[in-house]
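Final report, closing paragraph on structural work. Over the funding period we assembled a curated collection of sequence-structure pairs, and we close with a single example.
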Amino acid sequence: MVQLSGKKIFNGIAIGKIKFYARTENKVTREKIEDTAAEFARYEAARDTAIEQLNELYEKAVATVGEDNAEIFNVHAMMLEDDDYNDSIQNIINTQGVNAEYAVAVTGDNFADMFANMDDDYFKARSADVKDISERVVRVLTGAEDNNEIGDEPVIIVADDLAPSETVQMDKSKLLSFVTQQGSANSHTAILARTMGIPALIGVEIDASWNGKIGIVDGYEGKFIVDPEMEILQGYFKKKEADDEQKKLLLELKGKENVTKSGQKINLYANIGSPNDLGSVLENDAGGIGLFRSEFLYLESSTYPTEEEQFAAYKKVVETMGGRKVIIRTLDIGADKQVDYFDLDKEENPALGFRAIRICLTRPEIFRTQLRALYRASAYGNLAIMYPMIISLEEVQEIKAISKSVREELKAEGIAIGDNVEEGIMIETPAAVIIADELAKEVDFFSVGTNDLTQYTLAIDRQNAKLDRFYNAHHPAILKMLKMIADSAHKAGIWAGICGELGADTELTQYFLEIGMDELSVSPGCILPVRKLVREAE
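Its predicted structure, as stored:
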């Protein structure tokens, strides 16, 4: 048995026979040519034929992976018409007096190297595209056949690399997954894999001797297992069965309303940690984002992220969600999320210490920078702001004063902001629950952070594994608090939701409906299972 790691491109489990895909090499020899004009005309004819092939591939791809992803073949056709590319081929033919195949191969290598050495990841990924179009033209010139056959049985394709044209021409019904040594997460092949819903890994050290052996691709953990032991194989068959069930849910429930049989509606939103999670949000048909953890910007940086860096991230999220609500939680550093450059003192009990809104109100320059970025991004979509770790009415009033000041500052600078940006608070302390009726008069919504609310209510450190037997998220005190929160919100005319882990607890979905929760925000993969229960509820 061999187990390797790679970079995951798409989630899922694939189990099947490995097919080692060896691309047919286009052997190009350098030949002297007397009539260079005729040779360039020969190239132009081959190029035109290649463009016709790409147009046919575009039509096929539209039918299988959609118009947006098929666009790569139009791009390839345009690359073949690029003046710099064609001038290079003509120059090599004319000055060196060589055959078209050689001129195309050299130009392809030169342009591919040029792209590969660029700093931008997008342009690096175009290196494979230049190779692909050049090899296509060489095949036309030499009369070589495309070799995209993968056989009659479903297989896991293992290859050094795969060009987009190779991937799209493969019989999708026979393609379980692909594993490559080269490639990037930004390549068109990777994009096609995501669109086709095929688990895939890149950056795996491959071996031709695997051909014909049984393989397992774990797209969730980025693992590739060759010739697995029986116990491991059986375990993955069970995982795949659960994975297939989830996909059935997706097919059955995508696009359907979150409404009970009696007509009660509830919003199902997603919790995410960075813009990289947006694909999963859309794939699982979330109605919006109920918790965007903005601290990822701080955790991934070696210094305080600038206003522009934050603005770019928030703008990307709200634009991508296309008008659906995006609730962004302000900085929640501290406790179990420590950042060196904040220079926070060591605390005996950090969960009860200097964290979240307490940092923001004590270091207003950090808070104002984030609020400026948030309000600027609000002009590009449906953005709401949520403040964590609230314990008093005075905190909310201070936050609102700072928020108002930031809005006025931006307007004075002529910077557009969204209309009526909702401001809400997280209810995650017993203090906030007790005064929820007063807090509700000051904000637009409540979102319950059940993880911390349970921790503080039960006086149990949720990071302490020794206390697991005492940690009970279904404790009657927690459930009563949730009802108090919903009642206080509705009495004041605002909405209430849950963004903690408890929101995805399907044993409590019925209870959340009964107490009138308006929204549940859960991990993207939990959206459809919860939707299923909502639609089955009376």
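The two ends are 50 Å apart (CA to CA). Residues 262-536 form a domain with the TIM Barrel fold (CATH 3.20.20.60). We thank the funder for supporting this effort.
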